[in-house]
Amino acid sequence: MNRKMLFTAFTVLLALTVSMFAQPPRMGKMKHPGWQHALQLTEEQQTQMQDLQLKFQKEILPLRTQLQKLRADLKLAITSDSYDEGKVNKIIQQMENVRTEIQKKRIAHQRAVRKLLTPEQQKKFDLHILKGKGGPDGMPMGPCPECGKGKGPRFRGEDRR
What we know:
This protein is mostly helical. The chain has a domain of 111 residues: Four Helix Bundle (Hemerythrin (Met), subunit A). The protein has five helices and no strands.
């Protein structure tokens, strides 16, 4: 029984790893011309933002991987013949801790991006966030008014998670 559960857990983790590499990279969101066009970023700002984005992605990749593993663990715990509510609650709490850490890093990233901007650009950036248009990587989602409707990832049907 223990070998069977270990084999199942290994299979689930392997499937998650393979599916993670099959998905398109998320960094393309920042390169969306509407975002850069709306803020009228300089070449230097664009380069600095790409550096920040790369750093941010490298910081949260292990956390996202950990969250995927916890999701798989939760599914196994919920469907186990010997259900352990304490174990399930512990996994749920661990998932919340990881989500909190990701959110902290996301906000730190947004603040770092904001520091690169001029006061006028900061106003636009802040308005986008206050309107609830901050994306999962700290970048706005959706169309750019100057670029035409339906250009952002949300409107192309891409998953935000």
